[in-house]
Here is the input.
Amino acid sequence: MRTGITIQHARDLTRDTGAVRSDITGFVSVIPKARWPSGAVQGDYLELPLYSYGDLLGNRGRLIFDPVARRAVKSFFENGGVECRLLGLCVESKDDLLVDDPFSTLFEPLLHRLRGEEDIGILSMPILSYMPVEYRGMDIEVPYQPVLELFLAHCREMNNRFLIIDAPRDVHDLPLRRWVRRFRRKNQPTASYGAIYYPWLMSGDEMFPPSGSVAGIFARVEKANDPGGVRWPPANQVIRGVTHPSVDLTYKESEAYNDAHINPILSQPTKGVVIWGARTLSEDPRWMYINSRRIVSYIAEQLRRDSEWAVFENQRPQLWAILERIVRNRLDTLWDAGLLAGDQPGLEYLVKCDEEVNPLEVRNAGQVHVHVVLRPISTAESIVVELRLSAGGSVIEGV
Here is the structure.
């Protein structure tokens, strides 16, 4: 190299944003009015990042959060979780959770915060399962259902986020299955972003909802199978820190729950207490299983983050070529991690970013579109992912 001349590598050659995380859990808690911090109002929230159960025990403000969420945090770390967020929502009474429009009345600030924490991959609000239900013959009405629907829609909006739902307390058999069936059908556009678990768990005489333990197992399975751990279903896994399920299901009984897309928890004499299902709430065969949903969500979110920088660049064929290369390189990496089908990289996925997918009206709107076709390892058919990138916010369609 001649004196005074420095080689500058082109900044467009690589755009590595790092791997998306899907194992961090957000536990939503409630803070009753008697425990509100000074100056708080309804809808305010507190956030506590936790990396061990000891972090919670050592925090002087831990008693502000409801005991159900604190128990879920303990179960999460007992079962292999490594990081979570405890978010306490200031409520005046339990009636605040039993409204038709929870977003406008209570949850808007909290959801705004959750949108800014992109690496939270799992969401749960275990206190909801303690709320009362109403029986009408063999059917039940769940007054807090609008909150569950709000969270499902939020998980779909965030894409790489999944809701773990506890069965309502003391609801069993046909009434539970009938409610879940109605709930699934009502929420089909978002149903693949959530799963429900039954029955509750016991530790000696203590009974508690399973979502904290299940979230820990999600994280444990993912971390044990890195890279690409989301391809493994969080099922046939032993639940730690419990003695038995609150209801002792037979294998035949568990089939009825599985058919209703309720993931049963069983006690196996030679193994312990295990999760015996990995189904989402979706009726769509593509998204029937949790790992299928999470694989595609993970891939789509990774591609979105890798590509977002492009919205600030001038539209030109060179930009399209760079985007194609970056997306294809990422897919090669994901194939190598076992997330994509095919005997060799590139065999079963396609990336297209050119004038055809970016016509004049798209370019004039300040957008960049990338068309991706891929087949995840757990599915029999290809999935189309449309990345629509813009300075006003990126959108992923088709997943």
About this structure: DSSP finds ten helices and 18 strands in the chain. The domain at 299-397 is CATH 3.30.360.90 (Dihydrodipicolinate Reductase; domain 2). Residues 294 and 352 are 23 Å apart (CA to CA). The first strand starts at residue 24 and ends at 32.
